[in-house]
Structure formats: structure tokens, C-alpha cells
């Protein structure tokens, strides 16, 4: 199912998207606040693990495209991490440097919160951000997330956002 925002198309990731996503997820500089993938194969494995979660849970990160020209800008959305389980449903996003500073992360976060609340009816979302990643911290706070605590083993702040469940 594709979700459209004012400027973005959010849709399930296809294996054919992975080479373009690897240009972002494999870029050490772009991914300096999180892990990056050394190989296309590792990136494909990671994306496939999340797509397996989509089939199981009904959500996983989307391929994020520009509505203006169809360019893949990044990857993100709601997920339960199949590689580091136990944190609950998270919001995460990874964008190409060319997309930074344009409000796309805030647009994605708003769409993700709406999806979590309206369709999935989740009680809460979590997110992580490194303290030095001020842009991501601002995106989360703007989306209604509240910083809970610092998680030393992840070197990140844990954020939480309660959702207004529909009855």
C-alpha cells in the first residue's frame, strides 16, 4: 500500500530498490549517526529482513520517493527491528544527504505517526537518536516524541510517543 504526503511517496520496498537504497545506506558519511552497510548483499539482507516483518506485522520501513521526480530519497517509517528485537515499534529514517534539511524527515514522521495511530492502532512508538544528531532530535520532538533516557549500550537517546488510540 502506497502512502502519499505533500511531497513524498511511501511504499513497500522492492528488491529492485535496494541498489538505490544502498547508495544511501552504504554511505559511511551519510550514515555516520548509525550503522552503514559495507556491501550491497548486506543491505539486501537487511531490507529483506524488514520486508519479512512487513508480511508478518503489516509494517516496515518504506522506500521514500520524491513525488516531483520519482527519485529515491531514502528509507524509513515504522518497524520492529528483526535484528535487535525487544524495543517495540520504532520510527526510523535514513535519507540521502541531498534530501537533508528539506523537511522530508518531518513529513515522513507525521505520516508514520498517522499510520501508527489511525490504521495500526498502536499504543505508542519509540525512536532512537544520537545526542549529536540535533536534526533528528528536533524531528522527533516536533513529531511529539519525548526523550526518555540515554541508552549507553546504543549510544543513543530513547524517545517515546504515546498515541491516541481510536475506539
Automatic annotation (TrEMBL):
Keywords: Acyltransferase, Transferase. Gene3D superfamilies: 3.40.630.30. PROSITE patterns: GNAT (PS51186). It is an enzyme of class 2 (transferase). It comes from the Bacteria. The keyword Cell inner membrane does not apply. Residues 8-164 form the N-acetyltransferase domain. It holds the Pfam family Acetyltransf_3. The keyword S-adenosyl-L-methionine does not apply. GO terms for molecular function: acyltransferase activity. Its EC number is 2.3.-.-. PANTHER family: GNAT FAMILY, PUTATIVE (AFU_ORTHOLOGUE AFUA_3G00765)-RELATED-RELATED, N-ACETYLTRANSFERASE DOMAIN-CONTAINING PROTEIN. This is GNAT family N-acetyltransferase. It comes from Bosea eneae.
Amino acid at each position: 500500500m502506497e502512502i502519499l504526503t505533500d511531497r513524498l511517496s511511501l511504499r513497500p520496498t522492492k528488491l529492485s530498490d535496494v541498489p538505490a537504497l544502498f547508495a544511501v545506506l552504504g554511505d559511511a558519511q551519510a550514515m555516520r549517526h548509525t550503522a552503514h552497510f559495507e556491501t550491497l548483499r548486506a543491505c539486501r539482507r537487511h531490507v529483506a529482513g524488514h520486508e519479512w516483518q512487513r508480511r508478518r506485522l503489516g509494517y516496515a520501513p518504506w522506500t521514500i520517493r520524491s513525488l516531483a521526480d520519482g527519485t529515491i530519497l531514502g528509507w524509513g517509517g515504522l518497524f520492529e527491528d528483526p535484528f535487535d528485537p525487544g524495543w517495540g515499534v520504532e520510527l526510523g529514517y535514513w535519507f540521502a544527504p541531498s534530501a537533508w534539511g528539506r523537511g522530508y524527515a518531518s513529513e515522513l514522521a507525521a505520516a508514520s505517526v498517522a499510520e501508527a495511530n489511525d490504521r495500526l492502532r498502536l499504543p505508542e512508538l519509540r525512536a532512537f537518536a544520537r545526542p549529536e544528531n540535533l536534526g533528528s532530535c528536533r524531528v522527533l520532538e516536533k513529531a511529539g516524541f519525548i526523550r526518555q533516557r540515554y541508552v549507553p549500550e546504543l549510544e543513543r537517546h530513547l524517545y517515546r510517543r504515546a498515541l491516541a488510540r481510536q475506539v
